Amino acid sequence: MAEAAAVEESGSFDEVAVSNEHGLHARPAAKVVRLAQQFDAQVTLTNLTTGKGPVNAGSLSLVATLNAQQGHRLRISASGPQADDAVAALRALADRGFDDAPAVGGAEAGTAGQVLAGKSGSGLDVAVGVAIVADGEVELSGYQPGAAEVERERAQDARRAAEEQLTRLRDETARTIGTEEASIFEAQLALLDDAESLDVVFQAIESGESAPAAWKAALDAVAIRFDELDDPYQRERAQDVRSVRDRVLRALTGKSETTRDASGLLVVRELDAATAAAVDAERIVGIAVRAAGTTGHGVIVARSRGIPVMTGIGDVAVPAGALVGFDARAAEFVVEPADGGESLRTALRARAAEREAALAEAEQPAVTVDGRTIAVLANVGSVQDAVDARGADGSGLVRTEVLFGERRVAPSVAEQAEVFRAIAAAFGGKPITIRTWDVGGDKPLAFLPQEREANPFLGERGIRVFRRRPELLRDQLKAICQVAAETPVRVMFPMITTAEEVEWALQQLEALDPPEGLKVGIMIEVPAAALRIATLAAGLDFVSIGTNDLTQYTTASDRGNSAVAGLADGLDPAVLQLIDHVVRGVPAGVEVAVCGDLASDPDAAVLLAGLGVHELSAVGPQVPTIKARLRRTDLTTATALAAKALTLESASAVRTRSTDRVRFS
Ligand code: PEP
Ligand code: MG
Fold first, then answer.
1. 486-540 residue pLDDT tens
2. How far is the CA of 271 from the centre of ligand 2 (A)?
3. Which pLDDT band holds residue 116 (cuts at 50, 70, 90)?
4. In 426-436, which positions are buried (b, 16+ CB within 10 angstroms) versus exposed (e)?
């Protein structure tokens, strides 16, 4: 238990803030643990915000119990010969946000379907094959236990075998996928080394348990600790613990990983990173995951390897060897399709051909069958995103808080202007839409620390923050004005709720004497803003609908909480009705764009065009696909489809009617 393992506090200490998005989840916690272990010192951590601890900073399972989330304050204490060095090193790590890169897929993550459609490496989202069912626990019944000494030896051997496998996986992943994904295995390796858990294992063996029973009990207990954490992202890390547990148990029982050399469509209870990294992408045609949730490391790794994934298939019975298939875009999974999987295979070929064709025509404008040009732009959070955005008609959203998210001190006006210039240049002088700092909610900025709030998404976010810190907004506006004098730029204010906020933001801008060509707009993300669009948008050049936030606020479903991912669906007719209200109610001459994730979904893009939105801004890799889809669209048909969608009762009813999906027979 945490208290039992607490070490004496004395000597050197310091206090730090947790600034990274998901707090001390497995990867940053593993970095803390590895660093703490390097010093000849006894180091403890206490979560001052919750009062949890002190716990041994050298134990991953104990650090996890701190439940340290973004905004929490931690006390680092150390005693021993290298106490000062240990504290200084941990402070430096905390100051760097624990070297935690933003969650892959985090900023763009919407509903499960959108994530898969937008981010999957192949982007095809269809798979069909023979089911390889690997969703059971490792079978221990045939295990023959020996004397305590033998069991101790076997427990050690299994630990070493698991360590070798994970080290190999880490190195292979770093080489073939990326270092960020590889760091997932660092966290798993740290679990194998966890002094606290090892003590539990060996004590259990001393008192007569077999090695598998001891390992299983110790790691199940750690997984439960993760399961009990408040942050849903941290909670999902329990699957890393179970993955390590199963690896050790397989080593002990001599069972091989069913997934390693198999061919077909893999069905798993949850997808851990090790499985996703180890499967042979040539043989595994897709992975169907029973659990919902799209932020798990396994989903991230599989997607980056281009393996189609569908999550949330639930408890449907899947006999091993049965023919199964899915279309993740339509969220449909079938067992033994009546046509032997032919419709899925046809869809697969069609989607691959479509993708090729879309890429070949990416640079052409998206003109609908009946001659209306829809601008398709790209959302960017880095200069590289802009360089990679093939065929985009500019940027409809530059997320400045992502662009400068790593900064510990606010970037100067000149630094900001330089980066904005580089983005504009990457788009070859096409317009870019710079959104002012959208800090708050799930997006921290280290140089703008915020008080912890009970409901951060309903607290000081976006424009609200700058009423108290106008100088930071003004510096950013200065940089935007500089660049707008040289190249087409639009500025956009986030999280607007009232006309008074718009007025205040415009005053800040006007005080800087903005250049003639600078276009000014606001984001529509709050239902109140959508409802009073007629008064709110008067005098502006454009509004851009942020469907990610508009959806979470309309459906009262936290966009980062996988438990309510089904509710937070941008195709909910209630959200579509608000978009329709904006399009119809906006004052004459004010353009309406959509830059939320809904615009990255080809089916939704057609609906949006049907609602009268003539500018969409999507994640970069989806731009060619969206353009190709719009070229095949007749706006008259799309308008009728959209009108019907407004009257339907649910997002799934809208999806059923509008999805260009596989028709299972
Ligand atoms: C949105 O809310 O839809 C949006 C585009 O902004 P972000 O996702 O950055 O909050
Ligand atoms: Mg938003």
1. 999 999 999 999 999 999 999 999 999 999 999 999 999 999 999 999 999 999 9
2. 29
3. very low
4. bbeebbbbbbb
Q: pTM score > 0.85 for this model?
A: no
Mean pLDDT of 178-196: 81
3-state secondary structure of 172: helix
| Ligand 1 touching residue 546 (CB < 6 A) | yes
The separation between the first and the last C-alpha atoms of the chain, rounded to the nearest angstrom, is 55
Q: Among the bound ligands, name the one nearest to the CA of residue 402.
A: 1
Q: Evaluate if residue 326 carries a pLDDT over 50.
A: yes
134: nearest Cα among 299, 275, 341: 275
Q: Which residue has the higher pLDDT, 658 or 426?
A: 426
* Model confidence pLDDT, tens digit, residues 90-102: 999 988 888 875 4
Which residue type does 350 have?
A
What is each CA distance from 330 to 305, 547, 653, in whole angstroms? Answer: 21, 19, 11
Q: How far is CA 123 from the centre of its chain?
A: 16
Ligand 1 pocket check: which of 398, 435, 438 to mutate, most ligand atoms within 8 Å of Cβ? 438
Q: What is the dihedral of CA 428, 431, 432, 434, to 10 degrees?
A: 150
Burial call 266-276: b when 16+ CB within 10 Å, e when fewer: bbbbbbbbbbb
Query: Residues 224-244: what's their mean pLDDT?
Result: 79
Percent of the chain surpassing pLDDT 70: 90
Q: Name the burial class of residue 489, with classes exposed (0-12), middle (13-18) and buried (19+) by CB atoms within 10 angstroms of its CB.
A: buried
| Catalytic-role residue among 25, 72, 297, 581 | 297
pLDDT in tens, 58-76: 888 788 778 888 778 899 9
Q: Which of 141-150, 269-278, 363-372, 435-444 bottoms out in mean pLDDT, i.e. has the lowest?
A: 269-278
The number of beta carbons lying within 10 Å of the beta carbon of residue 653 is 15
Cα gap 532→587, rounded to integer Å: 11
Average per-residue pLDDT for the chain: 87
Q: Given this model, what pLDDT does residue 483 score? A: 98
User: How far is residue 115's CA from residue 548's CA, in Å, rounded to a whole number?
Assistant: 12
Token representation of residue 263: 């061919």
**Domains and their CATH numbers in the chain:** 2-99 (3.30.1340.10), 148-253 (1.10.274.10), 366-636 (3.20.20.60)
d(CA 112, ligand 1 centre) in Å: 16
Token couple for 96: 């760097």
How many A from CA of 230 to the centre of ligand 1? 23
Concerning whether 481 is annotated as a catalytic residue, the answer is: no
Residues 6+ apart with CB under 8 A from 368: 374, 609, 630, 631, 633, 634, 635, 638
Q: CA-based Rg of the chain, rounded to a whole angstrom?
A: 26
Say which residues have a Cβ less than 8 Å from residue 179's Cβ, sequence separation at least 6: none
Q: Could you tell me whether strands 12-17 and 73-79 are parallel, antiparallel, or unpaired per DSSP bridges?
A: antiparallel
